[in-house]
Amino acid sequence: MELKGIHHVSALTANAKANYSFYTGVLGMRLVKKTVNQDDTSVYHLFYADVVGNPGTDLTFFEIPRAGRTYPGVSSISTTSLRVKNDEALQYWKQRLTEHQVEHEDIVTENNRNIISLRDPEGQRLKLVSDETNKGVEAGTPWKKGPVPVEYAIVGLGPSQLTVNDPAPTVKVLTEVLSFKEVDRYPSQIQGQPDVIVFSTGEGGTGAEVHLETRTDLPRERPGRGSVHHVAFRVDNEDELKYWKDRLQGARLPNSGLVERYYFKSLYFREPNGILFELATDGPGFTTDEDPEHLGESLALPPYFEQDREQIEAKLEPLDTKRD
Known about the structure:
By secondary structure, the protein is an alpha+beta fold. It has one domain (about 5-315): 2,3-Dihydroxybiphenyl 1,2-Dioxygenase, domain 1, CATH 3.10.180. It has helices at about 15-25, 85-100, 165-175, 240-250, 305, 310-315; strands at about 5-15, 30-35, 40-50, 60-65, 75-85, 110, 115-120, 125-130, 155-165, 180-185, 195-200, 210-215, 230-235, 260, 265-270, 275-285. The strands form two sheets. It has an eight-stranded mixed sheet. The protein has an eight-stranded mixed sheet with strand order 6-7-8-5-9-12-11-10. Strand 11 (about 195-200) and strand 12 form a beta hairpin. About 45% of the residues are buried. The mean pLDDT is about 95. InterPro entries: Extradiol_RC_dioxygenase, Glyas_Bleomycin-R_OHBP_Dase, Glyas_Fos-R_dOase_dom, VOC_core. It comes from Oceanobacillus kapialis.
């Protein structure tokens, strides 16, 4: 049994309004769910994705209003990739990022793919990766009503980069416990550091990769606004999730057990370097409680929070996500 690829990535923001403005207005992603952090209902949890939030397209943010800055380091998910259709799309993005005064680098080739590295206004480390030569997990479907033409739009999540001091324990979990296989290596951008190792699962390709970077020159990351909280990998259904729970227990990896998130079911655990992994089911998805035409326009609450809606809304700063 194999994991199917990246399910979602969850990061931290200190400002939901500014975050919404950037990821919808500049990056052109669709807000498919405006809800709350189910472990702390006093703050927002925002989901940006393709047209309906298909698995493998969701970049999500927990709002922590007083979050401090991030001090980058090891034991971290250090970069999140976003897929675009081809190299032509990267040319479009190079111009768009310049026009919107977004901090970014030039187009370069990394692991035989063209990419652009950029940062959001809070320093979130992102890459746009071209699917020009990609084969593997299918991309998502762009939202036609966004500000970015569909032929250039973001179509899903690409590889997640993990940065560690000692790769061996992480490699062991990826390959011996989870279903990843080493498929490639490429030179580190930091002189004197080992090659970055590429791991792939399921059908492979940009939507199913983890890139493991070794850094012996950095302290442990101190997360804050602009850091990544966890990466989630795709599981087909609840029965398979139970299989993975048993597998983790057999490997003596402490885990959360199955957790109900309403839009999917989850399982959480930390690998030995302290990075938080989630396994999440593909369904039931984000259209289970909202009309696909109006996803993300209202505060959506799972049924088990609905009786507390008035108190929950009273604690949240208003966030207008209504679209024309």
